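Lab notes, practical 5.
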Amino acid sequence: MAAIEVYIYCGYMSVTHRLKKTLRNIIIILFLPLTLVGQNNDVNVETLNKITGITREVAEINLTEKEFNEGIAEGPIIYKSIFRKNGCWTAYYLYENQDDNPPLRIKYSQTAKKGYDEFEFYYKDGKMIFAKLTEFKSRGRNKGSETKRLFYYKDKELIYTTESEKEKYSEYIKRTEKSVRKMIYE
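Output from the prediction step:
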């Protein structure tokens, strides 16, 4: 009799655990857009809905990436200054058809002055919808630090960024995205 009670009790714990896990997942899905926006009062409900839609599209591309083809391109970065070390760049791009320009996603990394930068560009209907810049510092006083910046676009216009220096980084993202696509497709 004791063995049956233990089995039922363990089954009850399993159901409780699954319910807690499901509830946690629902809460995460509902409040994820709010955590992206934070306490920024400049964001209205319409922009929040656009950000949520873009986040879903990015997640869908990442979840279905195995269904698409992936290409790689790489090359050197040669600086004119003798005081800077030469470096390299690498781009992995995800595409549906060989001639897709732009592809669905580009993951690009390059050496930087005190570390390296990683970019992720996501596209829908030929337009960039999302960009992520991650800066890794491998030298200097911030050695080992990592900074992530997110940029959301709608119809080629920046609708939201997590970066306070919006203009500076927005132009940097656009220039880098344009040059990466040029390097990949030439």
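Observations recorded by the TA: Confidence is low (pLDDT under 50) at residues 1-13. The chain has three helices and seven strands.
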